[in-house]
Amino acid sequence: MTKRAVIDRFEGSFVIVELEGRKMVAIPVEIVPEGAKEGDVLVISIDAQETQKRKERIKDLFESLKEEGEE
């Protein structure tokens, strides 16, 4: 599922975006692509592949910590 947000304005270190349903939210400017400007449409989606990779890395780290604790 994909969501869209329209950049309404910039306020200091935040970007005010309008979500579907006209709800306004502030997000840190650091997570907005460089060069974004008022009126641009941001696409928000889930990266399933990256999510799975992160889960596997966390699981591997947890397993290695358990093994260290058993020694």
UniProtKB/TrEMBL annotation:
<dbReference type="InterPro" id="IPR021377">
    <property type="entry name" value="DUF3006"/>
</dbReference>
<protein>
    <recommendedName>
        <fullName>DUF3006 domain-containing protein</fullName>
    </recommendedName>
</protein>
<dbReference type="Pfam" id="PF11213">
    <property type="entry name" value="DUF3006"/>
</dbReference>
